[in-house]
Amino acid sequence: MASASDSAYDWDALRAVALSAMEKAYVPYSKFPVGVAAIVDDGRIISGCNVENASYGLTLCAECTLVSTLHMTGGGKLVAFTCVDGNGGALMPCGRCRQLLYEHSAEGMLLETVSGIKTIDEVIPDAFGPRTLAAYHNAE
Ligand code: THU
């Protein structure tokens, strides 16, 4: 369930940024544009769209471009995230992208999903991540 702090974010404004990113999607193959937007822990708003490839498996999900943008514009951790399809409807990030988002999430990061506002831990429970590797190496 959503954290008590979900109302701290302007989800309508964030979704508008995702919609505008979605318009830039390069999707000649699937014709399924995706736009994402996120708030970074320093207040920055970043976004991304999917970029496909004739070699289909090389397609970059919208979340990939968002994560690249995160680092290209100063790094930090994601605190809130939304994802929309070509109709502007909420879209659940694919499994790979949940893992991508987890890596760069602030503790308690919130996502607008098809079933309401959820935390990153709810959408990728018991995730493998940076702390898994650190715990392994600390135990050596
Ligand atoms: N897609 C994303 O960009 N993000 C997701 O989380 C789900 C899928 C894209 C990849 C591909 O360009 C299109 O949606 C259809 O699979």
TrEMBL record:
Which parts of the sequence belong to the CMP/dCMP-type deaminase domain?
9-131
Q: Which GO terms describe its molecular function?
A: cytidine deaminase activity; zinc ion binding
By its UniProt entry, which CDD domains does this protein fall under? cytidine_deaminase
GO biological-process terms attached to the record: nucleobase-containing small molecule metabolic process; pyrimidine-containing compound metabolic process
- Residues binding substrate, per UniProt: 50-56
InterPro entries assigned = CMP_dCMP_dom, Cyt/Deoxycyt_deaminase, Cyt_deam_tetra, Cytidine_deaminase-like
Q: For this protein, what is the EC number?
A: 3.5.4.5
In terms of PANTHER family, this protein maps to: CYTIDINE DEAMINASE
**What is the protein name for this chain?**
Cytidine deaminase
